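chain below, 92 aa
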Amino acid sequence: MGISLPGDLDGGRLNQWISELLKTKGGDIYRMKGVLSVKGTQKRLVFQGVHMLFDAKFDREWGKDPRTNTLVFIGKNLDRTALTEAFKSCMA
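prediction:
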């Protein structure tokens, strides 16, 4: 399942959401990955996770690329609407 939204994310809200998501749904998320645009930085935040393990790093600058957030989840019992709405609440 994928989510794609333009714009910048609030880093604090994003961190809270991912932490809560991993606590509550970590066992159902086999894999997740994405490229995110965090407000206040010119670099892309690239992340990946497997179950409750999670890693994120800033990589190259956005440059002329549009600042778009793309997330992909592979798992079971994932509610697209709930995940999308929760992710939208992280927007700056």
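The chain has one domain: 2-88. The chain has a mean pLDDT of 94.
thats it, cya
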